[in-house]
Amino acid sequence: MRSTFMGLETARRALMAHQMGLETTAHNVANANTPGYTRQVVQLQATTPFSPPSWISPAIAGQIGTGVEVVAIQRMRDAFLDSQIRQETSSKGRWETQSELLSQIEL
Question: Cα dist. 102→55, 71, 90 in Å?
Fold first, then answer.
């Protein structure tokens, strides 16, 4: 049987994890109009359950959940678009340099 303190700890973990989610959402809303900003999401994961003492394997029925935790805050970006931006920025720099050199030759 679970103790009251274990229930309070599970509730505390849930509150802390969801508080982080609310803070991240507030951060996303505050920076929505910032150029170049990409939104962030909180990755949650269940914590390791408590198994009652047993001689059998730890993956038995009757495990007691211990809550949730924040694993990471992930930035939502498109890797393909990031690659394209880098490639085109590099190409732009090359053409600007070539244009500058050719304009110096014309003088």
Answer: 81, 53, 19
Domain edges within the chain: 1-76, 78-107
CB-side neighbour CA atoms (13 Å) of 98: 6
The model's pLDDT over 6-22, given as tens digits with 9 standing for 90+, comes to 889 999 999 999 999 99
Q: Where are the beta strands (DSSP E) in 1-107?
A: 40-46, 68-75
pTM above 0.85, yes or no: no
CB < 8 Å & 24+ apart, contacts of 24-31: 24/73
CB contact at 8 A, 49 and 66 = yes
Q: Which of 17, 24, 21 is nearest to 38 (CA)?
A: 24
